[in-house]
Write a structure and sequence with these properties.
heterodimer, A: 620 residues, mainly beta, Methylamine Dehydrogenase, Chain H, Immunoglobulin-like, B: 233 residues, alpha+beta, 7 helices, 13% strand
């Protein structure tokens, strides 16, 4: 070493390498520092988001799990993930998709793409009864009952709807869940036509999925035949705009191929305004054709139902303000968002102030319906509202949230987001009576702002305080894909149960006494009535013959909170979890001879490990 | 008075004299009519006993880290009632937990008390009212003595219940514990539970019933003594 440094050349070389390394280190350090948020308000942020052990969050956050098929539930302001509600995919953790009922509900599909959870409303405010979610992947819509946070109905694939994206948005009294085709196709489904014939043979639809007011039961109400555009997001009017539904469109070029180019050639696309109350009347008047079992209205033949409102190109969100007076729409490649006046829209319709028509539908004169263009920043996507008359618009390209004032149309504040915010949710921000307080940014990219978990990185959600003039970043959370959209509801609006009362269990196969637990042979099968209670699965052994159709009814007879019991059956690909007071049924054919253990999969008690039994399948 | 004269004429030994006087006085006391105040006190006592049909006799509460709000068991004269919320059925829960140490489940059908206790309480009420109507001290003393006997027997019976539940443990139970008697009165640690056992409203009603009957006796006694004193003077 001594000799090495005596040589001036070597010394310089070492120095050079050292300096280069130093520069690189400093460089990367400063980059890291730039990524970090200001820590000045750390104590305040920590206090605002700290929910002490035993204390409860103030709000529920329901956010979509995208192509996981789930809905996630977190608390605000702690941002802690509390529960996962499986909807469109099997979920062994709760046994969803393994028992008879949920298996039938899921049908043949193994995935779904949850985009837009929508809480049921009464008079335009959340009533805490149901949460509706769409499946963009397989054109379905589901209802989650907020009494027990379970998926109760999956409707679909909905006829004629292709890419159920423009939903599930609800009308102010939950009359309808709205749905629209993202991808126009030839109708009815099953019809094949070359993409070259896209403009003439392909059709879009917007639909009203009718909701039964007492049970929440969904059925396809009606559909409106639309030109072959792509329909993106929607919102229902309220107050002065009640009775209207709005959807954004892209590709009004009716182009095919590389849409990134072909669908962005015109400077304007449309927001379509659909008068759903008039549609209802037209349906009752029988002005429909039936396509795939659904009454469908052609708005070209029945005018007065659908109007096109020009909007800067490729818009994503369209949002109605809490008072129902303004419709906010944004082209996602522009730097402005447009506020349209509902009053002016109605006047323009009455005066037939059209700038032309396209595909037989009247186009409202942009200048006649526009109230203001707000210079929010680059890439506005989605707007939500607070209780002070402010609007918050997410800016995907700019990766920021802009706060601006309804009425004066001035931009008040902006906050950077890490990274690339898609949608945002404010507390009760899409109701007639928003709470303000909190905003949750649902971000598409997290870019390693978390502990490194390899290339498959989670998405990020950020909690932003919006109580004061300046928005304040309070908390970063990371979520599984894909937080498309969320709803924030005051916790006291929900009244969930924790135990199914014995009295309410009307399942004819429920039993409540271990002495009633038994296996019975019925023709070619065996039916077992089973009791799950700490810490035994009764019966503890079941004997069947190979080839038997086995039906096992499982009743968890516990009547206390959180005493869940599971039933996992080895090598038969079965696991269900039964909640206290619940009865579930599993069915399978015992086609494999041998002895297969079953056991309680959901930890229950000190002797949980002992909660097991054997299925003996005697060979033929 | 004639009696006393007769005794005096025979008058021999002092002790014999005293004993006779005692018996005669007691006889007079028991035969005496009940004054209005005593009768009113007995009516109140009988009405108080109605509480037994509406309120629990005893309450046991079981606290642990998992049940910081306590599992609650109310014992009525005619049934067992665990606290029941939409989220928890405490009686079911207590039985679920007890089965690990092999304790028999608390079943209403196992308690013969639930049949005879309400019947006996009704009897005590009727006998009290009988004393009011017949208005004789002896009838009142009958009820009071019956009450004392009944209370002691019920107390013993309750203790015996607890004792047998805690001692007749299933030898095949998962958790072997030394036989024990759950607390009749006060606080006791059983496993991971701290159990509190105290009388409840109906027991207090019983107590008040007894006190009122005693007060009715005392009132009549005092009145009688005064009347005697006045007569002698």
């Amino acid at each position: 070493m001594k000799n090495l440094f005596k040589k001036p050349k070597t010394l310089w070389m070492f120095l050079g390498v050292f300096l280069l390394a130093a520069f690189l280190t400093i460089g990367s350090c400063s980059r890291r520092t730039a990524l970090k948020q200001d820590k000045g308000g750390a104590a305040e942020a920590a206090t605002l988001t700290y929910v002490a052990p035993g204390d409860l969050d103030e709000y529920y956050l329901f956010y979509s799990g995208g192509h996981s098929g789930n809905v996630y539930v977190a608390g605000v302001p702690s941002m802690r993930h509390i529960a996962t509600i499986p909807v469109f995919a099997k979920y062994p953790a709760t046994g969803y998709g393994f028992d008879k009922e949920t298996k039938e509900m899921l049908g043949e599909y193994e995935w779904g793409d949850v985009h837009h959870p929508a809480l049921s409303e009464t008079k335009g405010d959340y009533d805490g009864r149901w949460l509706f979610v769409n499946d963009n992947g397989n054109n379905r819509v589901a209802r989650i009952d907020l009494r027990d946070f379970k998926t109760k109905q999956i409707l679909g694939p909905v006829p004629n709807v292709s890419g159920f994206h423009g939903g599930a948005f609800v009308t102010p009294n939950s009359e309808y869940v709205l749905a629209a085709s993202r991808f126009s196709i030839p109708l009815p489904k099953g019809t094949a036509a070359s993409v070259e014939e896209y403009a003439s043979k392909y059709k879009g639809v917007v639909s009203g999925i009718a909701i039964k007011p007492d049970s929440g039961e969904m059925s396809v109400g009606w559909q409106v035949l639309m030109p072959p555009y792509n329909y993106d997001l929607g919102d229902a009017g309220k107050g002065p705009s009640d009775g209207w539904a709005f959807w954004t469109t892209y590709n009004t070029e009716k182009a095919i191929g590389k849409l990134e180019v072909t669908s962005t050639q015109r400077e304007r696309d449309y927001i379509v305004a659909v008068n759903w109350k008039e549609v209802e009347k037209a349906v009752q008047a029988g002005k429909t054709q039936v396509i795939d079992g659904v009454p469908v209205i052609d708005p070209v033949q029945t005018p007065g139902l659908v109007y096109l409102i020009p909007c800067s190109k490729s818009p994503h969100g369209v949002d109605v303000s809490p008072d129902g007076k303004w419709i906010i729409g944004s082209g996602k490649l522009q730097s402005i968002t447009t506020a349209y006046s509902v009053e002016k829209m109605l006047a323009a319709i009455a005066a037939k102030n059209f700038s032309g028509e396209e595909d037989g539908l009247p186009i409202l004169n942009y200048d006649a319906v526009k109230e203001a263009e707000v210079n929010v920043g680059l890439g506005p996507l989605h707007t939500q509202f607070d209780n002070q008359g402010n609007a918050y618009t997410s800016l995907f390209v700019e990766s920021a949230v802009a706060k601006w004032k309804l009425g004066t149309w001035e931009v008040l504040d902006k906050i950077p987001i890490t990274y690339n915010i898609g949608h945002l949710a404010t507390a009760e921000g899409d109701t007639v009576d928003p709470d303000g307080k909190f905003l949750v940014a649902l971000n598409k990219l997290s870019h390693g702002t978390h502990l490194n978990v390899g290339p498959s990185q989670p998405e990020s959600t950020q909690l932003i305080g919006i109580e004061s003039e300046k928005m304040k970043l309070l908390y970063n959370a990371f979520t599984e894909p894909e937080p498309h959209y969320a709803q924030i509801v005051k916790a006291d609006k929900l009244k969930p149960i924790e135990v199914y009362q014995k009295e309410e269990n009307k399942n004819p196969n429920a039993i409540w006494d271990i002495n009633d637990a038994k296996a019975e042979r019925t023709g070619d099968g065996v039916t077992v009535k089973t009791v799950l209670v700490r810490s035994t699965i009764t019966p503890t052994a079941i004997e069947v013959n190979q080839g038997d159709k086995v039906t096992i009814h499982l009743t968890n007879i516990e009547q206390t909170t959180d005493e869940l019991h599971g039933f996992g059956l080895l090598e038969y690909n079965i696991n269900v979890v039964v909640d206290p007071g619940e009865t579930k049924t599993i069915e399978f054919v015992a086609n494999k001879p041998g002895v297969y253990a079953y056991y309680c999969t959901n930890f229950c008690s000190a002797l949980h490990q002992e909660m097991q039994g054997y299925l003996v399948v005697k060979p033929k | 008075m004639d009696n006393e004269k007769a005794i005096e004429t025979e008058g021999t030994e002092a002790t014999q004299n005293w004993l006779r006087r005692f018996i005669v006085r007691k006889y007079d006391f028991l035969e005496q009519p009940l004054p209005l105040v005593s009768r009113l006190l007995i009516i109140i006592a009988a009405v108080t006993l109605l509480a037994v049909f509406f309120f629990p006799l005893w309450n046991m509460t079981f606290f642990s880290n998992q049940y910081t709000d306590g599992l609650m068991l109310d014992i009525y004269a005619y049934r067992l009632e665990g606290a029941k919320t939409p989220n928890r059925d405490d009686l079911r829960e207590i039985n679920s937990l007890n089965h690990y140490i092999g304790m028999r489940p608390l079943l209403e059908s196992d308690f013969s008390e639930f049949v005879w206790l309400p019947f006996a309480v009704g009897g005590l009420m009727l006998l009290a009212l009988r004393a009011v109507v017949l208005g004789k001290m002896s009838k009142l003393v009958d009820v009071f003595v019956l009450f004392v006997y009944f209370s002691l027997y019920s107390f013993w019976s309750f203790y015996y219940r607890l004792h047998s539940y805690g001692h007749n443990l299933d030898p095949t139970a998962a958790i072997k514990v030394e036989p024990f008697t759950p607390p009749l009165f006060g606080e006791q640690v059983v496993g991971n539970f701290t159990v509190y056992s105290y009388p409840d409203t109906a027991s207090y009603a019983f107590f008040v019933y007894g006190i009122l009957l005693f007060a009715a006796i005392a009132w009549a006694w005092r009145g009688n003594k005064r009347a005697l004193a006045a007569a002698e003077a």
